[in-house]
From TrEMBL:
Residues of the Alpha/beta hydrolase fold-3 domain: 78-287
Example GO molecular function: hydrolase activity
Organism: Phialocephala subalpina
Entry-linked PANTHER family: AB HYDROLASE SUPERFAMILY PROTEIN C4A8.06C (PTHR48081)
Keywords annotated in UniProt: Hydrolase
Domain of life: Eukaryota
Pfam families per record: Abhydrolase_3 (PF07859)
Keyword Zinc among record annotations: no
Lineage per the UniProt record: Eukaryota, Fungi, Dikarya, Ascomycota, Pezizomycotina
Protein name (database record): Alpha/beta hydrolase fold-3 domain-containing protein
Keyword Cytoplasm among record annotations: no
Amino acid sequence: MPSLIFGLKIYLIRLITSIYFYLDRHHSTPLPPPPSFTLRIPTTDKKSKLKLYFYTPPSPTLPKTPTKNPNPAKHPTIINFHGGGWTYGTPQKDARFAAEVTKAGYLFVSVQYRLFPEFGHPTQLNDCSAAVLWINEHGEQYGIDPTKLVLTGWSTGGQLVFSTAYSLASQVSLAGIISFYPLVDFSTPRSVKEERCPIAVQRSKTPKLFKEISEMYGAASGPERSGPFMSPGLASDEMLRRLPGKVAVYTCEWDTLCFEGEEFRERLRGLGKGVGGYMVSGVVHAWDKFPTFKRGDGKRDKLYGDAVRELREMFEK
């Protein structure tokens, strides 16, 4: 049972991020779209339901409501895991990227996995895996092509895409993975990461409280924090070879996670994967999620456009 002080910290984090999200969603251009519809699906423990947010491309055959058996044309589909230190965040955080994906004619499904501390590790991984399995088995009636699935994720969601791919390697065939500024090494202390990239500490817009909570999640995970499902960048070569043939990793120059992300991308390339992505210069962690109000963000637009081109290559292999 979390202490009262810890519970207050979680409440404060979620309050702050909800304000940021409100400003970004309602007062930053271009305005992100609402989901086309949502669905609730069973979790692996059968005790609760997961909510999936569907964003569909303009199409006369795709449902705008959760209609079973509409027999729509099948579309390549992105399954998305939001960021937020496993503690906060919402699937709608990535709606602006979803808009770019649907413009390209793809379907975008964002997963509302359960959060820490109400649910500890490995609940988040189990929920993401359950969502992918459900979509793979039942998605056709909602316009999903189960032979063309790509996982995308941001920050801790960028970690979850790899952990999920590891856990489902023998059950689901993925067309690719795109991971944005992921945490892939939970075993290295934060102090070491900050020494590698001191400018990230100077430029960081992440409150210390947020970092403290993510460390609590790691502590609660115990020795598993060094295992492949918490630190996917430390997985064996054998596990990495079971990943899809195409993987893209995008990092941020002023981010303590930059070094491990760059190192992981090169390791994947060395194993013969078709590797994309790059380091975005002059930006901090999760820079694309901060409210821009009326200014817009050309650098964000370029990143999203490049990621959609990566998706096209993954689907057209």
